[in-house]
Amino acid sequence: MRQATFGIRLPRYRTRSGAFDGMVVAQLKRLNGAWPELLKDVQCAVEDVPASSPVSWETRRVMLSQSFPANHGIPARIVLYRKPIEQRARDRIDMQFIIRDEIVARLADLSGKHPEDIDPDWGF
Questions:
Q1: Structure pTM?
Q2: Rounded to whole angstroms, how far apart are CA atoms 50 and 120?
Q3: Could you tell me if 48 and 82 are in contact, meaning their C-beta atoms sit under 8 angstroms apart?
């Protein structure tokens, strides 16, 4: 009988995209604990790569993440691009910091606050 040589709960079982999604969720939970009003009406998504041809409302090309303000009944959105972030990160801890910094920077864009006001450790 064939079976996996490692359990399904061990980290090796998770895919790269699943592990990345878990890091994003962890950062969102952490930020929601401190700033629930900032995240209340914001949707967050993960895409593998940015669109190859920017749509008309995009004013600049962003490689790691992008934010879209609320418009015509559509809530504000933050999109993180997994593969560019993975390529920039040196290791797993560095990836967590990049994810944190990108989410905080996009929340600052959407709210008009300074990133340091949202997270004093931003950029370190």
A1: 0.80
A2: 28
A3: yes
State which residues of the chain have pLDDT below 70: 1-13, 53-62
The CA distance from 69 to 110, in Å, is 6
Contacts of 20 (CB under 8 A, 6+ apart): 46, 82, 85, 86, 95, 99
Strand pairing of 65-68 and 42-47? Answer: unpaired
| Dist. CA 30–CA 73, nearest whole Å | 27
Sheet holding 42-47, edge to edge: 42-47, 76-81, 65-68
Element (H, E) at 80: strand 76-81
Measured distance CA(109)–CA(105) in Å, rounded: 6
Residue 53 tokens read as 């041809």
- Cβ(115)–Cβ(122) under 8 Å? yes
Contact present, 87 and 119 (Cβ < 8 Å) = no
What is the C-alpha separation between 124 and 114, in angstroms, rounded? 15
Specify whether the CB–CB gap between 81 and 49 falls below 8 A: yes
